């Protein structure tokens, strides 16, 4: 259906059979020259879509009757990227590009060699901006589930969040194990379980370091928390490029 529109914080299962005012999408609907009784599809990034018909349209308001809801099957793999805080404009582009891929969540992390630090005064506005960027990328890519952008966490907190994950990787220039080789070995092993029935999704964490890489202490701490150090390529990449490269590789192997 081409008449597909994104709305946030409005939809719920309890709306089925009821009407809801949606002036927020009025301009888009009018641009497509839709009228009363036209069928439309609504989604909010939660992984569900709502089918409905336009019951009323005017110059200032649009009303839609919700007819049904469709839930999309949960992915069997959830990829979580832990990314360094980099220059603001590059951070925005990095999140936008990654959110176009099938990445479950993004965690900005604060490391020893982090380029930038957010104070509490602008953290809320930055996080809100990143979430809007993620929503825009979801719309562009035609996905139904939005990549979650979480609040920045410290390196130690990030490690703790991954305690129960199935695959825990951290990029390290000093490693002699390439990401591609690790993934090929994992998928070919009997322990993979990627093509088997699982009660829970396969959880994957990928940490990307700041310019200058993670410190020796951080890499040691990661190993102590059962992380595997992997090298992305034979050459050195910026944090921005490394994030896009890693996200693409993981999606290629698992999505």
From TrEMBL:
Reactions that this protein is recorded to catalyse: uridine(1498) in 16S rRNA + S-adenosyl-L-methionine = N(3)-methyluridine(1498) in 16S rRNA + S-adenosyl-L-homocysteine + H(+)
Pfam families membership: Methyltrans_RNA (PF04452)
KW Transmembrane helix (keyword) present: no
UniProt GO molecular function: rRNA (uridine-N3-)-methyltransferase activity
Family: Belongs to the RNA methyltransferase RsmE family.
Annotated keywords: Cytoplasm, Methyltransferase, rRNA processing, S-adenosyl-L-methionine, Transferase
Protein name: Ribosomal RNA small subunit methyltransferase E
